[in-house]
Amino acid sequence: MNTLGAYLEKLRLSCGYSLHAAARKCGLSHGYIRDVEKGINRNNSRSLIPKPNTLKKFALAYNADFNVLMHLAGYYHEEVKDEFEFLEIRLDQILYIRVNCNNEIEYHLESEQHEEKRNLYDYLLLETKLEKHDFLRIESGLLINLRQIKELSFPERKIHFESTYLPLTWLQFTKHNKTIRRAIDRNTLEEELPSTTLTLIRKTSRSH
């Protein structure tokens, strides 16, 4: 089983990188990165284990633990574990996303919440992805899923979802209330099949 390759692929996807983007970040060719992920050198069909200096490039590019990569590659025999686990989330099930005071990204769903850490570059990639899937940027570090909104109340200035709500400041309400009300009207009239687009996150151990 190609444990290292599968792990590196998940790291790449959790960063939101295509193979070409990963190549630019790592300073490696996209073909080589894909070979490592598959664990096979396409030129000779032999197993492929990167050298430690190459693993260091992956660790820096993916904001990953170098020691974990060294263990998975077989250089360290003592097990090293991450402080996170990979988790796939459906974008259509996210209510809103917020960056908290610890610079962690909070994913709020109806019955659960998850946190992860990302650097600024990767977070901006995530924002761009979300805005292509009907998420509205209320302000820097706060995005709401327009498809999940049920009601916008005034004068309370609250965005209501199925079983929870999100309060807005006066400035946020004034700036976005027309867009939100149009989304509510559309949600009432349209019956679309839910999107199954997934995003892969690194869920921290404190998530619940």
From TrEMBL:
Q: Please list every transmembrane segment annotated in the UniProt record, as residue ranges.
A: none
* Key words of the record: DNA-binding
List the GO molecular function terms: DNA binding
Give coiled-coil spans as residue ranges: none
Residues in HTH cro/C1-type domain copies:
8-69
Matching PROSITE patterns: HTH_CROC1
Q: Which Gene3D superfamilies match?
A: lambda repressor-like DNA-binding domains, LytTr DNA-binding domain
**What CDD domains does its record include?**
HTH_XRE
The record's InterPro entries line, in alphabetical order, gives: Cro/C1-type_HTH, Lambda_DNA-bd_dom_sf, LytTR_DNA-bd_dom
Annotated protein name in UniProt:
LytTR family transcriptional regulator DNA-binding domain-containing protein
Lineage at the top is: Bacteria, Bacillati, Bacillota, Bacilli, Bacillales
